[in-house]
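pasting for the record
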Amino acid sequence: MKNIKLITSVPGPKSQEMIARRAAATPAGLAKSTEIVVEKASGGLVWDADGNQLLDFAGGIGMMNLGHRPTTVVEAIHSQADKYLHSCALVTTFEPYVALAELLNKVTPGDFPKKTLLAGSGSEAVENAVQIARYFTKRPGVICFEGGYHGRTHLTLSLTSKYGLFKKGFGSMSSDIYRLPVPNLYRMPAGMTEEEYLNFSIQQLENALIAQIDPEALAAIIIEPVLGEAGFISVPAVFLQKIREICTRTGAIMIADEVQCGSGRTGRFCAIEHSGVVPDMVVLAKSMGAGMPISATIGRADIMDSIHLGGVGGTYGGSPLAAVAAIEAVKILSSEEFLANATLFGQKMATILEPWIQKYPHVGDVRGLGAMRLVEFVKDKETKEPYPELALQIIKDAVAHGIILIRAGLYSNCIRLLPPVVMTDEQLQEGLQVLEDAIARAHKS
């Protein structure tokens, strides 16, 4: 192999030493999907502490759409570091915050006036969106969806699904949150056509406004246009259109959580653009900062301006170092060239992945949008019983052979693929061959 170069086992002795230090110094609950210890990284390549050269197919759970250390981003950080590191947007004004807000207002969907609030993490940005929606509407209720992941703060953890992994043991969650099913075409009820299933899902939305929450109490509906942690479930356009219609009719705010699926990953800057639906608010993070900790809540100007003076903000929100990185990243991520490449990249992935459904008995589905792709493993293709043990076995094998991977799915039975879109064709093919080899070995065993 030309890109993967293994000189020790993975993890090697130096990596094992660092992993032991991590275990002694950090909480046991801080999980890790691999035993890779990163020494340096560039583009789609990662070198570990033992000198092994690996391919990154996890991308920091979607942070690396532009790859590791994109040149213009690194140069912008160096230049800013020579000027000043921080002065806090609650105390002073600095151009990087303003310039990034102007750029995000321009590239996100909707031709109405917009304003942007910056923060440090996706959780913060989602929390800001929900709190602002509640303030603007003067209503408490929020509808979210099964399988959705929105963060780990108290409010966003309350919105997040997958109870056993993320919420178990953390006590009472925030009130006035209503969770509904989202249409998953792979797990469609037996005997239903796709049209019947989507119509039923839409009826469930309408029914919730009678059975669960009065429309006059509904502040917002929040949804990931492609559900990430749930298993890269692309929400059908008709379902998103129904959410838009309900929000318009009731005066609720439609929030698109684009933290993982946004920033050009699907071939549009925001994944919701594929549906033609325009939300009232968009939340961005992860790849928007090209590896720097920054997030954004972008919304209609009238909504964003409704908060009283001093009601929003945070010490690190819009950090100048992170903001200049995000400016350079967003310029590229929103460009026609990058978006076209993301679409083509995804098509190349699909061409390699889709034959696996027929080739391997336990590959139940491969799916995704643009360069956001996933493989789901099942014990039986008829019953579609999840096979999380197999997914974990395959990941361990593939990582040992040189690619970085992470699981996904409500049942943890999927392998998500979020490689940097800047990977070469050779790197993409080599990495996916390693994954297929691991799948083949798992089937034989």
